[in-house]
Design brief:
single chain, alpha/beta, Nonspecific Lipid-transfer Protein, Chain A, Rossmann fold, 2 domains, seven-stranded mixed beta sheet, four-stranded mixed beta sheet, 44% helix, elongated
């Protein structure tokens, strides 16, 4: 322990922000005037910090075995300096460690039962049915809970989320009257934006009871009952019937699981008409080999935030898409945009901590509410750091369902609605939203 403390004290002196540690016996290490103080009540959490297992330190903070004083931005600046290895490439070097890691990856790859419909529903509800009032404190007014698109540097969060919604609609070339499916529709931001501004007949699905009820109220309030519907439904249980013209899946496939990824894209391919377009927007792993973030971070997210969540590298995602017969026509990495989005969420939550504590206490009781709040503070700021450092990425992948007819589309040989040019996405994009072009007509806002 003395050696660990000596090593840790040396690392504290090199951090970009002053940090102090109070040990279980009362001894203090680090800066005399710190921006962040961690008060340790047990030795194992101190060992985890010294060995770079920051996810275990986070768990100790959530459980109250370490008390945190200080802001999230300062804490994350310090955390980056305390890591002993890259969490995205935390691949064991010794042969027996590699064997154990390989065994774990294989187990994850075959974990079909972990993503049975009933269990997936419980896992989604664990996160998204936490409390609508809590999410409303730090999300934008539309409650868009996915990476924003900061088209200009001066955009506020709400503007950037609307820019993201319109960016997706443009990529999909939505047209009035088309049948549009939003898989994992959340609180309805994209679903309603597409219906209001692009005139589509829109269907959304979710496994969250809270989200379903919220969107149903919005549909009624906005008089969209005739052409917008929200279903409480698993994607695997959605009847194919008449295939959809366009499909979006935003922030959903992270919940699917490796074992179900092939089935997921095969199902989406069956739901999409020949020649139609599908946009998959989701978090991808920063490294090819890892099954999850190292340094205990992946385990922290699994336990406290997203049970059952699994990330794949974009190369593996593209493999599953191709196996389903879908053609990748455009891929865009929005990784820095998600870092900025997460920092915006984190800052908004930090500014509303008393209100968040009150909301969660009313929902879960004071003790459990405090634990949830500590978990989300660490999750939002830690994820922002992860996207900044490239431990994770965010890819929008646009796919076409080729119809086999070389005469389909505006480009010879296209076989789909995709024009094989990007001009239509960006043409005439000014500060006003929505934007209308000849190739992607939009309705006036209602």
């Amino acid at each position: 322990m003395k050696h660990l403390l000596h090593t840790l004290e040396g690392r504290l002196a090199t951090l970009p922000v002053p940090i102090a540690l109070q040990l279980p016996a009362g001894q203090q290490l680090g800066a005399p005037d710190p921006a962040v103080t961690l008060r340790f009540h047990d030795r194992m959490a101190l060992v985890a910090l010294a060995t770079g297992e920051l996810g275990n330190v986070g768990a100790a903070i959530v459980e109250g075995r370490v008390a945190l004083e200080g802001g999230m931005r300062d804490l994350m600046a310090a955390a980056a300096g305390l890591l002993t290895r890259d969490p995205a490439r935390d691949w064991p070097q010794r042969w027996w460690q590699r064997l154990l890691a390989w065994t774990r990856v294989r187990a994850l790859a075959t974990r079909t039962l972990a993503h049975a419909m009933a269990r997936d529903a419980r896992q989604v509800q664990f996160h998204y049915d936490l409390s609508d009032d809590f999410y409303a404190l730090w999300l934008d007014p539309r409650r868009v809970y996915s990476c924003a698109y900061f088209r200009t540097p001066d955009m506020a969060l709400a503007q950037a989320q609307e820019a993201k919604l319109d960016h997706i609609c443009r990529k999909l070339r939505l047209r009035a009257g088309e049948r549009f499916l939003d898989i994992g529709a959340g609180w309805g931001g994209l679903l309603l934006w597409a219906a209001e501004h692009y005139g589509v007949d829109a269907t959304g699905i979710t496994l969250s009871h809270n989200q379903h009820a919220h969107v149903q109220r919005l549909i009624q309030a906005q008089g969209l009952q005739g052409r917008v519907r929200m279903l409480l439904c698993d994607y695997r249980a959605l009847p194919v019937g008449q295939p959809f013209d366009k499909i979006a899946s935003v922030g959903m496939f992270e919940h699917v699981g490796r074992a179900q990824m092939g089935r997921y894209f095969a199902t989406l391919a069956r739901l999409l008409r020949p020649g139609g377009l599908l946009l998959n927007h989701g978090i991808t792993a920063g490294a090819v080999d890892n099954a999850g973030l190292g340094a205990g971070m992946g385990d922290f997210i699994e336990q406290y935030i997203f049970p059952g969540g699994e990330l794949l590298h974009v190369s593996a995602v593209l493999h599953h898409m191709a196996r389903a017969g879908l053609e990748m026509v455009d891929t865009e990495n929005l990784r820095p945009h998600y870092a900025r989005t997460l920092w915006a969420w984190s800052d908004r939550l930090e500014a509303r901590l008393p209100a968040a504590r009150q909301v969660l206490a009313a929902q879960s009781g004071a003790g459990q509410g405090d634990k949830v709040l500590r978990a989300y503070r660490l999750y939002l700021a830690g994820s922002a750091l992860g996207f900044e450092r490239g431990w994770m990425a965010l890819h929008q992948i646009l796919l076409a369902q080729p119809d086999g007819n070389a005469g389909t589309g505006t480009m010879p040989g296209a076989q789909s609605d995709y024009p094989f040019m990007r001009d239509y996405i960006y043409a005439a994009q000014g500060n006003a939203l929505p934007c209308s072009t000849d190739s992607s007509p939009a309705l006036a806002p209602t």
